[in-house]
Write a structure and sequence with these properties.
single chain, Sulfonate transport system permease protein
């Protein structure tokens, strides 16, 4: 009797994918991708300006409604040469800085207090939520009656807009801290100052920086409105004068400067965010 032996199954060869690329290669690849998208982000506004200029040159866009970018740039150059732009930037920047510091301190302190104390949450948070529901720009008439038409209502309006994003983000970040970290710090004998600097602050930093970016955007928005209150200096004063003389190019240039200031300050916070949170990228 002949016994047939079936041939043994030969496993298919597995393609050798090679070792995982080292971390340095991955970082270079990620860096190239980030640079590519940065270039795309930079070119999109340039393309918009080219189309705008072309439409103005072909008389498709009326000059009395929307002047060409070249005319707006000429208006800005005239303001820079006369020194008016520099003086206005100093005045407006000072107002935003003072309002940001005042509102930021109030927002972070109240957010920390409410986040760390159930009693404060029950007593302080409800009135703050009621105030947050009010449109802060709608308080301008009251601010004028209470504080006049000087610098105080302008700074307070900016501070009021800044305070609530930082308050909410601080409160939310503190409540999301892993309680085991706080308990470990207490077992190790950390003082309150050590717990705040080594546990609480690093834990809330990401969300706190997000709140700062939101606050900066609201700060510049509030300043645009605040500087319409009988301003005698600043970017709002330049825009008001241009409105009286029907200088649409100067008005648009002032608005562009507001937008650029918002972008620059947001970029500064993003750089600080990357530096403060670089440990996350190193662990990724």
């Amino acid at each position: 009797m002949v016994t047939s032996i079936a041939p043994a199954h030969t496993p298919l060869p597995v393609a050798d994918t090679g070792p995982e690329p080292p971390r340095a290669v991955r970082r270079r690849t990620d860096g190239w991708r980030r640079q590519r998208w940065t270039v795309v982000r930079a070119l999109s506004p340039v393309a918009l300006l080219v189309l705008w200029q072309l439409g103005s040159a072909l008389r498709l866009i009326p000059e009395r409604i929307l002047p060409a970018p070249s005319l707006i740039l000429d208006a800005g150059v005239d303001l820079a040469r006369s020194g008016e732009l520099t003086d206005a930037l100093v005045v407006s920047g000072t107002r935003v800085a003072e309002g940001l510091v005042l509102g930021g301190v109030v927002g972070v302190v109240l957010g920390s207090l409410v986040g760390l104390s159930r009693l404060a949450e029950a007593t302080v948070d409800p009135p703050l939520q009621m105030m947050r529901a009010l449109p802060h720009l709608g308080l301008i008439p009251l601010f004028i009656l209470w504080f006049g038409i000087g610098e105080t209502p302008k700074i307070l309006l900016v501070a009021l807009g800044v305070a609530f994003p930082l308050y909410l983000n601080t409160f939310s970040a503190i409540r999301q801290i892993d309680r085991r970290h706080l308990e470990t710090a207490q077992v190790l004998g950390f003082s309150w100052r050590q717990r705040f600097s080594r546990v609480i602050l690093p834990s809330i930093a990401p969300q706190l920086l997000v709140g700062l970016r939101q606050s900066l955007a609201i700060a510049w928005l509030s300043l645009i409105v605040a500087e319409q209150i009988n301003a005698d200096a600043g970017l709002g004063f330049i825009i008001n004068q241009a409105r009286d003389f029907l200088r649409v190019d100067t008005i648009i240039f002032g608005l562009v400067v507001y937008a650029l200031l918002g972008i620059v300050t947001d970029g500064i916070v993003r750089v600080l965010e990357r530096r403060a949170l670089r440990y996350r990228a190193e662990r990724a």
